[in-house]
Each structure stands twice: as C-alpha cells, then as structure tokens.
Amino acid sequence: MGHNHGGRDHPDDRNRDLYRKLGRKIDGLQVRVPWREEFHELIRELYSTAEADVVTKMPYTFSTLDRIAMVAGYDRAVLSGILNGLTSKGLVIDIFLKDEYYFMPSPLYVGIYEFTLMKTGGLSTKEKAKFLHAYMKDNNAFFSANFGNDQKVSIMRSIPHEEAVRPEDYTEILDYEKAVALIEAVDTYTLGNCSCRVEKANVGEKECKAPLRTCMALGRAADYMIRNGIGVPASRSEMLEAIAVSKEYNLVLNADNVQRNPRFICQCCYDCCMTLTGIRKYGYPHTVVTSRFIADIVNRHECLGCGKCAKACPINALTMLDDAGARSKSKKIPSVDKNICLGCGVCALNCSTAALRLVKREQKVIHPETTFERIMMQCLERDTLQNQIFDNPGSITHKAMRAMIGGFLRLDPVKKALMSDTLRSTFLASLRLGARVQGRGWLLDL
Question: By CB count within 10 A, which of 160, 316, 324, 382 is most buried?
C-alpha cells in the first residue's frame, strides 16, 4: 500500500467516503469537530488515502504497533512506515514508554492544528494555514459543539502572571499555577512559533505585534516534537526569557489544563488566539478554564480611571464605568465581568498604581489532576467517552458497547451526576481501575 508524505493523492468520488470516515474518527476524539466541506478539503490535503485508512482503523487511544496492526489488519512493516509518516506530520501522536512506542490519532486541538502549522515540509505553511483558516473562520458550530451545552472542561487553563497577584494572596499560588515552576519541573523543552499567529499571518489577518516564537512544549510533549521534527530544542533560559517577554505584549499564559505533568504553555494574544476568540467573539466562557484568581479593584482611591486595564484585557472582561463615589464626575473606574474573567492578570500588569490586582476567587475552580482525568471528563461532556473505553473501531463487540454505553452517558441526568462534586471522584476512580484491569495503568501517569 503506497504512502505519500505530502498527502496529495487527491481522492476521487470513490474515496470521499474514506475521508468522511476519517472526519467521523477525528470528531470522536476528545475535541468535537463538526463536519463542513472545508474540513473535507483540509483532511484530504493533509492525509494520503493510505494514511486516512490507517487512522480510521486504528484504536482511539494509545496503542502499540502490534495492536494497531492486528486491529487494522495491516502488515507490521507497512504499518510502521505509514505511522512514521503520520507522526512526522503531527497527525498521529506517539510516546515512548516501557521500551516501545504507543500511537494515537491526533485530535484537532491540541494536535492537528498546532503541529501542522509548526511543522516545515510537505504542504507549504501558507497552504496549511489557508485550509485550517477556512475551516475555523466564522465557525460557531465548532465552539457550540464543544461548549454550547455548558461544557466546562477545556484543554487549556489560564495561569496568573505572578506579579499581578495581590501580595496577601501571593502565598495562595500553587506550583502548578506558576509558569516558572512548570518550566523548572522538567528538563526538555521546545519553543516554537504560535500556530494561531502563524495562521493569521499567512492569511493576512495578524494585526498584533506579538512575536511568533512563543509556543512552549514541556517534557514528553517536547520530546515528541523534537523526535518528529515539529519543534526544535530550547534551553531553560530561553523559556524563562519568553515568559518575561510575554508581559511586554500583554499575552495571556494558558497552560495544559492539568495539575501534574502539563505538556504546554501558550502565550495568547487578543486578535489571533483561537481559544480566546471562543470567549470574546462567540460568548462561550469556558473555552479557557479560569485560574483560581480574579481581577478586582483593591484600592478604589488609587485608581486613576485611565482605562489601560480595560484596553489590555484580551477578552473584554473589563468595562470603564462612571465612579459614583469620585469627586470628579468625569472619573471612571473598571468593572469586572466575573462570568468571563480568566484571572490571567494582564489587566493588573497595566495598572501603574496597583489599584487593580488579582485576588483569590470565592467560587471553587477545579483543574484535573492528570491528562487521563482531563480526557475522561472532557469526553464525558462531549459524548465520546465510550470511544475511550471501547476503543477498537473494528470490533463488533466494541461497536455494540459504544452504542449502548454512549446512549446511557448521553442522558443529561447521568452526565450531570457523574460530573458533580459528589460522584466525580468515584467515577474517575472506577475509570482508573478499568484502565489498570485492561493493562493500561501507565496511562494514569501521563
């Protein structure tokens, strides 16, 4: 079976069904991807027919080469070559554990979108940006599919700029909320071009002056990107310098939404960032999970009413209103929309008098402990958890169980109960036990 690294053996009508199946496969991962003709154009450019066939047949979750060969019905040597091409393009993610590689189809985010725009070779960056932009432009359906039913588990969480936190609340910042601590906890890094800014720059829509080279990968994620030529190694000092530079450009620090072993830190700007667009343009407040802090006026009398904080906010969460208590009738003071404030601290960095600072939120903010937990809860919200539990697309038994369990988990009362504070821990414990029973306990440590 042939393999075209460029993914350009354009399908005729007979192959359209193959790419429709591929679209359904990607839509069945942890991020929903509603079908549009633009998506068909995108995937037929990125995946050769051989690559599309392998991805549709391989398990939904991390699996060894031998298991994929058995499930997909491929010769091991042929499959190895195709998978190597897919991982080098960022269309399949691989990790090295227990002396062998495990492979999983890349979701759209974080995966296909980021890796293909960061990767050189194959289609030109301009072509890839054009196809990805065509799919995401004015695509409220994408955000609605992932957040339109009040879903709260996102891939990303905001990290507070530490300088923006009120001194008396500074001791409340945990290590997993500190960008510097996340960097210092590992020793493998890549610092690459931000895929969102690359996309916008290549379609002529980048208006900000933020630098491109701000996308950080950590630990295993950095190892994957280096191994597959998607990113280049960076030093710890380069990572720390990039964090320092982010303050100059009012960039939001958004990290992997886990407490242990986060894979990335993004530095997101107002006009390019896709996830911030979900909040600002489409009104879905959970496309980025908030930090445990929130912006607040801590010294009303020190506020100059200059409006720099409101101007800097990347999601328009601050509005300047008349200050009824001021001596001057013309003085204005910022009002914080607590429903959407990320607790990122960009506003406070622009307050010269420290009148505005980040303070600890009153309401509880839950960040998943591990990638396993985040994916399980994310898939539960998006009606794809059954694919993670019964992951063999070619098994009749698995297909039947996916249909039965999927129908049960889609029931609103069931989903709400399992997501609740009362049952969430018990439910996750049962999923962890199931992973161990299936011999996949190593997933719990990712």
Answer: 160
